[in-house]
Amino acid sequence: MARNSGVATVVIALATVAALTGCGAVGGTALPAEPDVRTLEVGPYQVTKFSYDQESGGRGALLEGMRMSEAVVPTVRIDPSLKYGLGAEVLGDSDVALSFLAQVSKPVLDTRRYVTGYAATGADEATAPGQEATPDTTLVNNVVLRFPDEAVAKLAARELEDADIGVSPDNQRLGSTEYPDAYIHWRPGVANVGAFIAHGEFVVSLFIQRPNADSSDLVKWIDKTLDAQLPALDAFQPTPVDRFDSLKVDPENLLARVVVEDRDGRVPDPSRFTIVDATVVVHHSDDGAATQQLLDRTGADRVATIDQDSIFRVRDEDAGRTLIDGLIDTTGEQYDPIEAPKDVPGAKCLQLNDSGDLEHEYRYRCYVPYKRYVGIVASDKEPEVRQKVAAQYALLANSL
């Protein structure tokens, strides 16, 4: 059974954000003061204050790729019509990066010592996982690749273009007056375009599909994508490659606040032991503008994930309650409210009903607020998820 990771669990909760008011779940009874967490039934879960080993263990490039999540814009910022986020991914090595590039790009990535990257895709129509967008869809695939330095990035951009355009003798070069350094190509009569541009130590690789094979229109979409993406890169402070090993695994102890049964053997993983920018949920949302609104309203800036469970960090306690209400309001008809543990203030729980997909979603999902944190825990067993709720609350309380 292929179950969603915590990141996917979070983004499913935001998949159809539309309204940010109201709440259908039954909450735990708010207590006049915090409960004595020593009395909570936490089961086998760890609730003591903790810090993971901060050493990167040679995984600094992966940690930097996670940091790059704040440097890649959701497609809704490129154009409001691109409201459907189709996913985002850390590109921790060249093999993963090749899933977003032509296979002929591998020698370039290897020769130019590709470091790490991050990719995001969005469109103006929903597309089911594993399916291709329809010909009438506008789609932007935005990939940011990191190289050792600016000079290498410039070489890589040109060589990636040469490799990509050489895939077909019918491909032709295009130019942009707004971005004359961009390498752009298309195949006449085919309604998509590819581009590469070096920007500092980065190379931005774009693939854009439009309903019509109009080269002028395609170049305009390259321009508007770069208009949004390049300032985001300018605002990002990249870690020098020779300092990757100094990156900490959990610098603000957010992962240490995610409830787990076993803390041993945890190492950075792009989906199961990760910290990324909160915009990851916009990259997966069916209403990117509304989702971004919810993040802005609550000041949500980071999501830490271990396995299927996550922690959001928000502006303050009120923002935490607002985030929970926004998440619950948008879970869809496949979830029904159930009573949350009464001894955990503010906790709210949902249960997957018969219209849900147990192959990909957990039967139970609960939300646990504590000061400026919101925990999201999931399980297929009700007793287990209730213990997780209690343990998540206790861990958050003990961690401050």
Tell me briefly what this model is.
The protein has 400 residues and is α+β, with helices and mostly antiparallel strands. It has helices spanning 6-13, 60-67, 75-78, 94-97, 106-111, 150-165, 215-235, 288-298, 317-329, 382-398; strands at residues 84-90, 116-123, 139-146, 172-174, 183-186, 192-199, 202-209, 273-277, 302-306, 309-313, 335-338, 348-352, 364-370, 373-379.
Topology, element by element:
Blueprint: H1 6-13, H2 60-67, H3 75-78, E1 84-90, H4 94-97, H5 106-111, E2 116-123, E3 139-146, H6 150-165, E4 172-174, E5 183-186, E6 192-199, E7 202-209, H7 215-235, E8 273-277, H8 288-298, E9 302-306, E10 309-313, H9 317-329, E11 335-338, E12 348-352, E13 364-370, E14 373-379, H10 382-398
Antiparallel strand pairs: 1-2, 2-3, 3-7, 4-5, 5-6, 6-7, 8-9, 9-10, 10-14, 11-12, 12-13, 13-14
Characterize the structure shown.
This protein is an alpha+beta fold and 400 residues long. The protein has two domains: 6-54 and 248-398, no CATH class; 60-241, Protein Transport Mog1p, Chain A (3-Layer(aba) Sandwich), CATH 3.40.1000. The protein contains ten helices and 14 strands. It has helices spanning 6-13, 60-67, 75-78, 94-97, 106-111, 150-165, 215-235, 288-298, 317-329, 382-398; strands at residues 84-90, 116-123, 139-146, 172-174, 183-186, 192-199, 202-209, 273-277, 302-306, 309-313, 335-338, 348-352, 364-370, 373-379. Strands 1-2-3-7-6-5-4 form a seven-stranded antiparallel beta sheet, sandwiched between helices. Strands 8-9-10-14-13-12-11 form a seven-stranded antiparallel beta sheet, sandwiched between helices. α8 packs antiparallel against α9. The two termini are 37 Å apart.
